[in-house]
Design goal:
Elements (H helix, E strand, L loop, with lengths): L25 H10 L8 E5 L5 H8 L4 E6 L2 H13 L6 E5 L2 H7 L4 E6 L8 H7 L4 E12 L7 E2 L2 E9 L2 E8 L3
Parallel strand pairs: 1-2, 1-4, 2-3, 4-5
Antiparallel strand pairs: 5-8, 6-7, 7-8
Length: 180
């Protein structure tokens, strides 16, 4: 696993071990970042269910101003910190050890981009989308990575499904705020 482009291009990242861990492939990562390439410069990013932190690190490497990494695993938090230090990006990051929903309930921040890659088949995305109410900037975007067969709701609260992209067995679904 490596950073594809930007200031940390080519840096190898440590990954987590275990059955629930499936790092995002380079192909899917390239697709994801081509979707948000114009939203990324200067963006405030939230990497929920961050795991090793590879998506948030890629966002920082490509020009996001800051990224908050949230994961409930202490081991994931340690790996995120090591990867951020290895890529010289720690000064623009905040690593939070917390459950995604608890974090969202307590934060007052608003984000331009939210990256969600929870464990597959756990039905975590609808609840996280609901908890993101009021946490996204007006033109913000949420990107959810799921298995191809996972069904996501068309609308949750103020968020409407915008587009879906398929990469083999992986699906990326974008959400934006419903226009009034």
């Amino acid at each position: 696993m490596r950073v594809i482009t930007g200031t940390a291009k080519g840096r190898k990242l440590i990954t987590l071990e275990g059955m629930d861990v499936r790092p995002t492939t380079d192909r899917v990562k390239e697709g994801l970042f081509s979707i948000i390439q114009f939203d990324l410069p200067g963006a405030m990013v939230l990497d929920l269910f961050a795991g090793s932190g590879q998506l948030g690190i890629e966002a920082l490497s490509r020009g996001a101003s800051t990224c908050v990494f949230v994961d409930q695993s202490r081991k994931a938090q340690e790996v995120q910190k090591q990867n951020l230090q290895h890529c010289n990006l720690m000064s623009r990051a905040r690593v939070v050890l917390n459950d995604a929903l608890t974090f969202l309930a307590g934060t007052k921040d608003q984000y331009d981009i939210v990256l969600m890659d929870p464990p597959y088949h756990k039905e975590m995305i609808p609840a996280a989308l609901q908890a993101l109410s009021g946490k996204l900037t007006e033109n913000g975007v949420i990107i959810c990575e799921t298995g191809i067969r996972d069904e996501l709701p068309e609308q949750v609260g103020e968020f409407q499904q915008y587009r879906t992209y398929q990469y083999g067995k992986i699906k990326l679904t974008t959400y934006r705020m419903v226009e009034a």
